[in-house]
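Record SAM-dependent methyltransferase, 245 aa.
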Amino acid sequence: MTTTPVKPPELREFYENPAVPVASGTPRSRRQARMLAEALGPATAGRSRTILDIGCGDGTAAATAAPYLPGHRIVGIDWSQDALRRARTRIPYAVRGELTDGGLPLRTGAADAVLFSEVIEHLVDPDAALDEIRRVLRPGGHLMLSTPNLAAWYNRGLLLAGVQPVFSEVSLRGIHGRPGREVVGHLRLYTARALREFVAASGFEVVRLAGAPFHGVPRPLRPLDRLACARPPLASILLLHARRT
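=>
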């Protein structure tokens, strides 16, 4: 049996659709911003750090992070023109760029930190993406990556029941075999172990792995979802802090 892969232009059209969600939950953004603020420390006179929010979407995550990072400069980067138009209403700097070889509009080693929030699960080639992020980060620069957890506590139960895991998608046209209604274009999913190993193999030192809740969990289950954050391998969202070696 042969299969026909989705062509990149079709994926581009999907992400340029204004109806496709480009923002994720505020709790994740806040936790990630606090982790980065702790890693960078306060801005000092004449020493403003450059933080890239790669795949900034509509700018919500960068705008949420900004109060935790006073004095530092946050630059949003996305290749969706529709997302950039929305991002520019929330953050001062938003420019177009791509996660290909030399596709980010910065010189080598120009950035002090990268926010990479809910992007890697959408990529056809995550290896090339981390190579490009590593290029623009200075030695010792920080990578703050977040992504849904394939092994989230409820996904373990769903799989045992023969139900497609939350976050996973088998089509760009509709949801099949799992709870939920929104199609968001996830192509890859990671467990905590897989994410650690992948980032380390890409030339980064993993500093910390934490968990965050998922805003789409039904309200009665949200207390349990917050409790799961204490055990990152069970959490809904994985928050990984790494440094460029």
